[in-house]
Design brief:
mainly alpha, 68% helix
Length: 199
């Protein structure tokens, strides 16, 4: 069992660790955000093999430019920056396809080329993204073992189930203040990996 205080206070931000070229941070970042990138690619009409190629290009770009990523303006988020990189790489793929000459191969080849998706339309910023919900669930699964069961239950019941701290405290045999502290510890730890998703 992990001491809750050490699990929340000693973690540096995932982005800070990735900027420092920490291999574990990069592995965690790809595990957390990779499915989100692939989800965007598929939502924008890419086939699996094209989505895999774009995925590689996106994370190569992140590796090159992560040190320069900053939250200069209100609303700047890593997730938004990652989405912009992904959209640019998808658009690059579509531009490359437009420049490719028509292949020789009869009607079957022509039909395959006709099936290439058009560039994705711009989406409203407020559209809910199921891939982001999956990202949050992956992050929660990754950190759950870092907390004692009662701490996790206090967090889950107040944040996910929306119950009042006093009600949760009565059920778990804790004070309402202890429930709020438990909630805060888990949220703090979650923000080290997904800070801007929780904003």
């Amino acid at each position: 069992m992990v001491d809750d205080r050490s699990s929340t206070s000693t973690h540096r931000s995932l982005l800070q660790r990735a900027r420092g070229r920490d291999p574990d941070a990069w592995e965690r970042m790809v595990a957390l955000y990779g499915p989100l990138v692939l989800g965007w690619c598929r939502a924008w009409g890419l086939r699996d093999d094209d989505a895999d190629d774009v995925f590689q290009e996106v994370f190569q770009s992140v590796a090159v430019h992560l040190a320069g990523f900053q939250r200069d303006r209100t609303g700047d988020t890593f997730r938004g920056w990652l989405r912009t990189i992904t959209r640019n790489k998808v658009n690059d793929l579509f531009r490359r396809r437009e420049k490719e000459p028509d292949g020789v191969g009869g009607s079957e080849a022509r039909n395959q080329l006709a099936e290439i998706a058009e560039p994705p339309p711009e989406e409203p910023a407020s559209a809910p993204d199921p891939a982001e919900t999956e990202l949050l669930h992956r992050a929660l699964a990754m950190i759950r073992a870092e907390f004692e069961p009662r701490t996790w239950e206090a967090f889950w019941q107040t944040v996910v189930e929306g119950r009042a701290a006093a009600d949760v405290a009565a059920d778990l045999g804790m004070s309402p203040g202890a429930v709020r502290v438990a909630k805060s510890r888990v949220l703090h730890r979650l923000r080290t990996d997904l800070g801007d998703l929780l904003a």
